[in-house]
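sorry to bug you again but im stuck and you know this stuff better than me. what follows is a protein written twice so to speak, once as letters and once as structure tokens for the fold. mainly i need to know what kind of three dimensional shape the backbone takes. anything you notice is useful, everything is just below:
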Amino acid sequence: MNLYRQSIILFGFVIPLLLIAAIVGGAFYFYSSVEATHKSKVAAFNSSETKRKTADNLEKQSTQERVKLQQWTSENGVVKSEALLALRSNLKDIEKNLPPAEFKVANFEQLANKAGFGAASAQNSSQLSLTLRGTFRAVQLALLDLETKMPQLQLQDLKITPPASTTAGSGQTSQTGSLNFQATYTAWEK
């Protein structure tokens, strides 16, 4: 029996124990790799869920703010009329500084269509039209002051015409020295 003892120990105990140890080691390695993969996938899922919830909240907020933004950017919104409001306040200041007999603002408005430099550029702009009456010197000073206060203005067109002649009671035409000025500006926006 001694002859078979070594074979029985080797094939009966050692090799099965080695196979069991290899199977247990392989199972432990497989379990740890599956657990690590599971943890990384759970972390990625939680991260994506957090990002999705944040994106949903931002979408809700942007939907609520869209109405306010449309009010600002509409055709008659604040952004479109900002240049017109600044022009109005600056012209009032200029009118206060010049004598009324030499300078008068007849009309100013924002033109609906883009023309000239503004139409050819990708930058946002609007067209402003001014009608002024006064002496050449007074209007020249007024335009200089306006362009100094509003550097975003670019003169597009300037037309100077004499006033329509009026006859006084004696049949003579009176010349007051005032001229009619029609100026068109491009107001560049940010």
